[in-house]
Design goal:
Blueprint (H helix, E strand, L loop, with lengths): L1 H16 L29 H4 L15 E4 L5 E4 L3 E8 L2 E6 L5 E11 L2 E10 L5 E9 L11 E4 L3 E4 L4
Antiparallel strand pairs: 1-2, 1-9, 3-4, 4-8, 5-6, 6-7, 7-8
Amino acid sequence: TTALGALLRCFPCERLCGGCTLPPGAPPRPPGALPPAMGPPRRRLPPAARLPPRTFRSYLPRSLRTYSCVHCRAHLARHEELISKSFQGSHGRAYLFNSVVNVGCGPAEQRLLLTGLHSVADIFCQSCKTTLGWKYEQAFESSQKYKEGKFIIEMSHMVKENGWD
């Protein structure tokens, strides 16, 4: 019974204050007594509640079908800006858009892509900084000139939102 008494006596202390240690010279607590009150326990907020709200440069209308960043849900493009779904990105399928929002652009560099030599600049989400695809700055073959100024976003980095039934 002594071990059981010690267990019952120490369990509340262990849970509330980390142990049954008394400061030197303090009078011993009677058996079964709880440690002094420590105030209400602090409630932990979920991680999302502790973060500041995200703000984006541009918000697309909620009534339109849109594409958003899969990582942070920043709006990226309206469905009406989609030119083609048959593009290949660095890591899989990609879509070609006329215009996009909430993206930053890196420096242009020349790359040899499946359709020839192009000058492209990587684009990234302004909110979470994830690289999403690239912007065609210049096409060196005449048959590819239609891509200039257009944007590639890889499907693995975007999600469809609003009105996709």
